[in-house]
């Protein structure tokens, strides 16, 4: 069964764009220079009604048939992520120039609609010219919504998402042309930074200020001589993100240069690698391609058959060993590493320039398996950012997006992949008041994470804050809420893929949901926001978390049933955020994540669990805690997450795992805590808690 993409779209405000004169073309027909001078004209970024063509991807079971979307110009780079703020992945495409002034030098945003189809794009000029464009999606202003960064000949253009489908556009001059981009926290201050790589003039590091701008930028000497690419990941197993630069031209220049982060916020001089004598590389991908939990490097050899990919494997000491090779079809170019079949293992995807094939190397128990070929439309060449992986139809399977100068945006829709919850759970020791990153064993298309603090009455009250829950990590910290600053609080967490899970297909009746909360409850008003269940539950256990930090002030999750004091029932669910006794009651909208699971025991992704709704017996920090819920069915429980079910206490509160031994083989030790923003007492009437405990 195939779904045709909807012919819906949206509009945006009028802005200006540069159009430039032709001044020669490169080997692919693209302009070689920026022309003699710009000519201004006005352009409205309205939806672009272009033809959409269905094409066959053959018999490969990974993909249904694909689609071609014509933007009217030369597609250069593509990325996947939620830039409209609705919780669904969108597709972002950039163009350079192909004699179409209405569509040249634009960013096209293809929104994913509620039915999982792509709407017609809104287009925005990036207010500069380019022969090549870098493209990255990241939350540069810490508002919980991905923004768009476009690199070009004049530096960088930032499209800061407003969370409602619109963007504020700012051009940031840079010392070099940013042909490719990568984003990560270079200086370790918790804000997203950016590295722009030029054709042959080195790189530039731009340090983010957390508000959508950059407070500093400086050059980075690296090895790149043209047709370059870059990626970022931990390449020496020290917990810090490093920069890998691939040069695609000149035998005298190293094929791979790795700039390690020194752990203090600086990138070191490059460690260099030559794959062989008189060899050139065409693409780079980073990921764990042998299942040992360490990031490896994949480089493509863009020559005719017989040819191959080069593989550098990271060992336990953080050293890149190799390269080994694996055979590849003709002219492998752009490379991405992703779990394309959702089996928990990274796979390798590669575009073959001029040979109408997407290559897929699935990872098996012994590493990468032989390449599978998937038919795609013809293009002689693909750009470094010309391939993106992500779920763009919300069916739980990763899809493929390609920037194809001949056919526009090409999408291949994933199918037949396992859609399990991808459970991650753990205990984070010594969480403080600064943001820290928690890395997870899975890559999530849309993560739901729930966390519970673990402390005792000697600690001041503390709430858990979460943000940037995407990909394979989230950030966490604790916020003091009166009474002093807590020191090194432990936090238990649970993360799953957003989705609906059934007993028949997944062995569990569960749903994981995210939405934007626009209501803020407090001691004088307890409403919540009505939600419906996707599954039927006899005894629902509801666990939740405020998953963004759009407001600098705290809020905590709560849930109820038909009244404030009743727990969620089989037919009534209200969830939301509350500020309890804080006299300042206004908060920004926040992302709420919550999990509903049928009470009982079983396994999630092979991990034993017990979930239940406890009795109305847990009281406050000044009421002689802990208060125990009996526990059975697990031999060695280690992680627990809990949330209040109803709100009996009019001042509000939150669930706490109490003391150093909160999770025991036969009991769960608990308490309710309150903020001290209006008074100092921490007494609390009895409450019920929903909980889940894992081996």
Key words describing this protein structure:
695 residues; disordered N terminus
Describe this structure in words.
This protein is mainly beta. The chain is 1% helix and 46% strand. The chain is built from one helix and 53 strands. The chain has a six-stranded mixed β-sheet, with no helix packed on it. It is globular. The relative contact order is 0.09.
Brief account:
The protein has 695 residues and is an all-beta fold. The chain has one helix and 53 strands.
Topology overview:
Elements: E1 15-20, E2 38-43, E3 52-55, E4 63-69, E5 75-81, E6 90-95, E7 106-110, E8 122-125, E9 134-138, E10 147-152, E11 155-161, E12 167-173, E13 180-184, E14 193-197, E15 203-208, E16 214-220, E17 229-233, E18 242-246, E19 256-259, E20 271-273, E21 283-287, E22 296-300, E23 307-314, E24 320-328, E25 332-338, E26 347-352, E27 357-361, E28 363-364, E29 367-368, E30 372-375, E31 387-390, E32 399-404, E33 408-414, E34 424-431, E35 436-444, E36 447-455, E37 462-480, E38 489-497, E39 499-501, H1 503-506, E40 510-517, E41 520-521, E42 529-531, E43 540-546, E44 556-560, E45 573-578, E46 590-598, E47 600-604, E48 607-613, E49 627-630, E50 639-644, E51 654-658, E52 667-673, E53 689-694
Parallel strand pairs: 36-51, 41-45
Antiparallel strand pairs: 1-2, 3-4, 4-33, 5-6, 6-7, 7-8, 9-10, 10-11, 11-12, 13-14, 14-15, 15-16, 17-18, 18-19, 19-20, 21-22, 22-23, 23-24, 25-26, 26-27, 27-30, 28-29, 31-32, 32-33, 34-38, 35-37, 36-38, 39-40, 40-46, 42-45, 43-46, 44-45, 47-48, 48-53, 49-52, 50-53, 51-52
Computed structural class: mainly beta
Q: Count every beta strand, where a strand is a DSSP E run of 2 or more residues.
A: 53
Strand content: over 45%
The proportion of residues forming helix, as a percent range, comes to: under 10%
- How does the major sheet shape up? 6 strands, mixed
Mean pLDDT: 89
Low-confidence stretches: 1-51
Q: Could you state the oligomeric state of the chains shown?
A: single chain
Mind telling me the C-alpha Rg? 26 Å
Which sequence of strands runs across the widest sheet?
34-38-36-51-52-49
Shape: globular
Alpha-carbon distance between the termini?
A: 40 Å
| Count of alpha and pi helical runs | 1
């Amino acid at each position: 069964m195939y779904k045709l993409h909807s012919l819906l779209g949206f509009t945006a405000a009028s802005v200006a764009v540069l159009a430039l004169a032709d001044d020669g073309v490169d080997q692919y027909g693209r302009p070689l220079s920026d022309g003699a001078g710009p000519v201004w004209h006005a352009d409205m970024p309205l939806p672009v009604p272009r033809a959409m063509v269905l094409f066959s991807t053959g018999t490969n079971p990974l993909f249904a048939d694909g689609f071609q979307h014509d933007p009217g110009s030369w597609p250069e780079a593509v990325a996947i992520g939620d830039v409209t703020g609705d919780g669904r992945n969108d597709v972002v495409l950039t163009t350079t120039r192909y004699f179409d002034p209405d569509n040249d030098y634009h960013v096209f945003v293809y929104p994913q609609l509620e039915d999982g189809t792509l709407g017609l794009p809104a287009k925005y000029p990036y207010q500069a010219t380019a022969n090549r464009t870098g493209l990255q999606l990241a939350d540069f202003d810490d508002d919980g919504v991905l923004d768009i960064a476009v690199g070009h000949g004049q530096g960088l253009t930032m499209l800061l998402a407003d969370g409602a489908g619109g963007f504020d556009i700012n051009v940031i001059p840079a010392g070099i042309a940013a042909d490719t981009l990568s984003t990560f926290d270079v200086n370790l201050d918790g804000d997203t930074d950016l590295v722009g790589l030029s054709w042959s003039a080195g790189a530039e590091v731009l340090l983010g200020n957390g508000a959508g701008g950059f407070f500093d930028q400086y050059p980075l000497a690296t090895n790149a001589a043209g047709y370059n690419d870059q990626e970022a990941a931990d390449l020496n197993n020290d917990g810090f993100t490093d920069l890998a630069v691939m040069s695609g031209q000149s035998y005298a220049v190293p094929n791979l240069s790795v700039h390690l982060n020194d752990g203090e916020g600086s990138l070191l001089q490059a460690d260099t690698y030559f794959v062989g004598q008189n060899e050139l590389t065409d693409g780079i991908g980073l990921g764990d391609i042998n299942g040992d939990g360490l990031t490896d490097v994949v480089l493509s050899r863009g020559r005719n058959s017989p040819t191959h990919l080069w593989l550098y494997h990271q060992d336990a000491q953080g050293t890149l060993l190799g390269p080994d090779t694996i055979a590849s079809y003709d002219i492998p170019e752009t490379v991405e590493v992703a779990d394309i079949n959702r089996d928990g293992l990274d796979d390798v995807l590669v575009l073959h320039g001029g040979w109408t094939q997407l290559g897929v190397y699935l990872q098996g128990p012994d590493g990468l398996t032989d390449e599978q070929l998937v038919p795609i439309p013809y293009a002689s060449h693909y750009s470094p950012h010309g391939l993106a992986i992500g779920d763009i139809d919300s069916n739980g399977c990763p899809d493929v997006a390609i920037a194809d100068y001949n056919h526009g945006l090409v999408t291949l829709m994933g199918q037949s992949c396992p859609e399990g919850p991808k459970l991650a759970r753990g205990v984070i020791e010594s969480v403080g008041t600064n943001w820290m990153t928690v890395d997870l064993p899975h890559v999530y298309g849309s993560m739901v994470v729930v966390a519970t603090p673990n402390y005792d009455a000697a600690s001041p009250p503390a709430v858990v804050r979460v943000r940037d829950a995407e990909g394979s990590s989230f950030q966490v910290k604790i916020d003091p809420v009166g009474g002093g600053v807590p020191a090194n609080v432990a936090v238990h967490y649970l993360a799953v893929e957003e989705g609906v899970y059934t007993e028949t297909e997944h062995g569990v009746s569960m749903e994981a949901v995210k939405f934007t909360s626009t209501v803020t409850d407090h001691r004088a008003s307890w409403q919540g926001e009505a939600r419906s269940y996707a599954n039927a539950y006899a005894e629902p256990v509801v666990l939740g978390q405020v998953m963004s930090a759009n407001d600098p002030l705290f809020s905590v999750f709560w849930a109820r049933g038909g009244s404030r004091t009743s727990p969620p029932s089989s037919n009534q669910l209200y969830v939301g955020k509350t500020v309890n006794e804080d006299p300042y009651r206004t908060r920004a909208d926040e992302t709420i994540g919550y999990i509903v699971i049928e009470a009982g025991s079983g396994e999630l992704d092979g991990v034993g669990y017990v979930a239940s709704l406890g009795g109305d017996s847990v009281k406050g920090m000044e009421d002689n805690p802990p208060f125990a819920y009996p526990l059975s069915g697990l031999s060695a429980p280690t992680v627990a997450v809990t949330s209040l079910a109803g709100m009996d206490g009019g001042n509000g509160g939150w669930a706490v795992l109490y003391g150093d031994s909160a999770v025991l083989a036969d009991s769960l030790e608990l308490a309710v805590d309150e903020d001290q923003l209006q008074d100092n007492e921490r007494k609390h009437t009895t409450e019920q808690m929903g909980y889940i405990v894992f081996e």
